[in-house]
Design goal:
Rossmann fold, alpha+beta, 420 residues, BirA Bifunctional Protein, domain 2
């Protein structure tokens, strides 16, 4: 039987690794620059955690989660996102006892059963950044700045923010009532999915991507006109900070998030020139979530960004990542006795921190030289019977094909001096 990768998954081949290395290394550097610490949470959690936090009426919980019974008949789910697991860890591990606010980031896979398309998969990889323990809008700005700087350092241009406020439990219910009243006589004009959202998750009416529904949403009442004094002040201060930094942004009244736990600030980072789906990340504030999963009431904000989406954007914009480091040295040999000496030499080179490769297939010297050329080695060290007998090694510089015989004891120093 010819096995294939499951639909919606893919293999990250060696030739693609330079992109992944570039994205993850830039992410770690920026997060550490801002004082964020790395956390890793389980790939699967109790299903109830996501039902409670993400929301039972959301598309993710209703249609997209990979849920199974383990051998103890406990319901488990492969994580569809990171925030719920991080909040569970915050509550369970009593991380509120540490200096607050707590700044965290993580990188890894998540899983959703949805229709595969460009930049969207069933197993996908995310960067996730969270700040737990502060309600200050300056923290909202900081999280947004982390996202911005990651993309800027990766090389993505034409960045801007989309921002909105979704209110809080005090002011949002009144707005939702107004929104439903406005939509009621228009339900015959919206798609079937929006008709369902009207009953289960009315805010998502504003988020539909179908053109007819979008034009209706453009005319809908705006939540900014219904915010309480606290939410309005919070959003106003955030905008003043964005103005102070001269960051381009647009207040997008249709911007909401698909999870139930968001409050106040929601945002996306957009990159110009990458097509209709120009958001490279989305996030926002979720002040009530930690209390929902068993911890103390704790304000928090974060964002997630799909690595596949970032790499797709890099390729569309022609951003080339640094090459993956190649072996500096290739060790070639002729004969069994020389092979043993080559094995010892290769290990010495690696112990000295020099990237070293060898074929180890008892091939001809010509075949070994071709292999060294294919992998881009700067030097080839050749050991034959004469070299073993004389305690020497032949060093060949691939750039100009010059060869030098030298004592075996001087090889490591010569290679290091040669610039590897």
């Amino acid at each position: 039987m010819n096995y294939k990768a499951p639909r919606g998954t893919y293999d990250i081949l060696p030739e693609d690794q330079a992109y992944w290395r570039h994205v993850t290394e830039k992410t770690r550097r920026v997060c550490e620059l801002y004082g964020y610490e790395q956390i890793d949470v389980p790939v699967f959690e109790q299903t109830g955690l996501f039902e409670r936090s993400v929301g039972e009426s959301t598309d993710i919980v209703e249609k997209e989660m990979y849920t199974f019974l383990d051998r103890s008949d406990d319901r488990m789910t492969l994580r569809p996102e990171f925030t719920a697991g991080i909040c569970r860890a915050y509550a369970e591990r009593k991380l509120h006892g540490r200096p607050q606010p707590l700044r965290l980031f993580t990188i890894g896979p998540a899983f959703r059963y949805e229709r595969p398309q460009a930049g969207r998969f069933r197993q996908f990889y995310q960067i996730d950044v969270e700040v737990l323990g502060s309600q200050d809008p300056a923290v909202d700005l900081e999280v947004m700045q982390v996202a911005w700087q990651i993309y800027e350092d990766i090389g993505i241009k034409g960045l801007s923010f989309q921002v909105n406020s979704t209110g809080c439990p005090k002011c949002r219910p009144g707005y939702i009532d107004t929104l439903k009243s406005w939509y009621a006589p228009r339900l015959g004009e919206v798609c079937g999915e929006c008709a369902r959202r009207y009953e289960q998750n009315p805010l998502r009416l504003l988020d539909c991507k179908k053109e007819t529904c979008r034009s209706i949403a453009d005319e809908a009442p705006r939540i900014a006109d219904y915010l309480c004094e606290e939410c309005s002040g919070h959003f106003s201060r955030l905008r003043s900070y964005l103005d102070a930094l001269d960051r381009p942004y647009e207040v997008n009244h249709r911007l909401v998030r698909g999870f139930d736990y968001y409050t106040k600030t929601v945002f996306e980072v957009w990159a110009a020139g990458i097509g209709a789906q120009n958001a490279v990340c989305g996030g926002g504030r979720y002040d009530g979530l930690i209390g929902m999963v068993g911890g103390p009431d704790t304000p928090a904000i974060g964002f997630a960004s799909g690595i596949e989406r970032i790499i797709l954007t890099m390729k569309q914009e022609g951003i080339e990542p640094p090459d993956t480091p190649k072996p500096s040295v290739f060790v070639a040999y002729l004969g069994a006795e020389a092979k043993e000496a080559a094995v010892v030499l290769a290990q010495e080179l690696r112990t000295a921190g020099i990237r070293t490769a060898a074929l180890w297939e008892d091939r001809s010297l010509k075949a070994q030289m071709k292999q060294a050329d294919r992998i881009g080695a700067a030097f080839v060290l050749i050991i034959g019977e004469d070299e073993v007998r004389n305690g020497a090694v032949m060093l060949r510089r691939m750039a100009d094909s010059t060869q030098t015989s030298m004592p075996r004891s001087e090889v490591v120093g010569a290679v290091v001096e040669g610039g590897t």
